[in-house]
Known about the structure:
This protein is of the alpha/beta class. The chain has a single domain, classed as TIM Barrel (Alpha-Beta Barrel), CATH 3.20.20. Helix content is 43%, strand content 13%. The strands form 2 sheets. Strands 1-2-3-4-7-8-9 form a 7-stranded parallel beta sheet.
Amino acid sequence: MLVQQGESMNDTAQRPLRVSSHGGHSGEFCLHAKDSLAQIVAGYAAQGFDWIGLTEHMPPLTDGGLYPDEQQAGLSAVDLQRQFDRYVATARQLQQDYAGRMTIYVGMETEFYAGAVPWIHELNKLYHFDYLVGSVHHVHERCFDFSAADYAAAVELLGDHDALYCAYFDAQLAMIEHLQPAVVGHFDLIRLYDPDYAERFQQPAVAARIERNLQRIAQLGLMLDFNVRALAKGASEPYVSAPILQRALQLGIDIVPGDDSHGVASVGIGIDEAIKLLQQAGYHCQWRRPKSAAKGE
């Protein structure tokens, strides 16, 4: 890293490294992203990242696991499985190409719905991922985060927001127990499209589940993704929100930034702000590196 005018070598030595544990979605392998994976990785290298994790979405086992945009594009589960195979091959090649310049971890972002767990274990055995990001995007088999309309439909299905939050955190705990991923992705994603999430987190049933899940993450030694993509989409704070972050730090949970990039333009966006927020919260910002923590390994 170049020393800027007015800085000393000691200043730069003390500065936290730029890293992303949850990034690298590309238009090459994801319909709702842009650019090639090689272009995105080059963007990280140009910004001086020390290490990054490439965490493309897992492919569905059946057509029932397709996202709406994949359905509209006429893709099948088999198409996406073949595409995912190309992703892993491309990511592994980039990992070799950048060796000595920037460390690349090749991973996968999970889903959690009926049938997902054995399929995830099968994929992990096939590809030998460096680590997993464990995420939940479905509640009661319904994807809630693809659009505001999908979120509203999930609220209606569950009855109200509190029930949706409770179901989400219950699914998240099950995911944690079954997969034990190295990184738990965007812990409080369920607040998406809910301007009243701060009040929701204080509801006793919801608060109890948040505490329960954080304690289990701490017991298992997993890390939390401090996901700054929320900022790029107009949120006032990353995932996780400030009160949850403070409790995670009290429990000794390791935090690691993730830009959840979906194209060259979003590479590194919010990482410096994330580091500043974590420092203000009292976190040491000496990032633990991800490693395979999938259950059974």
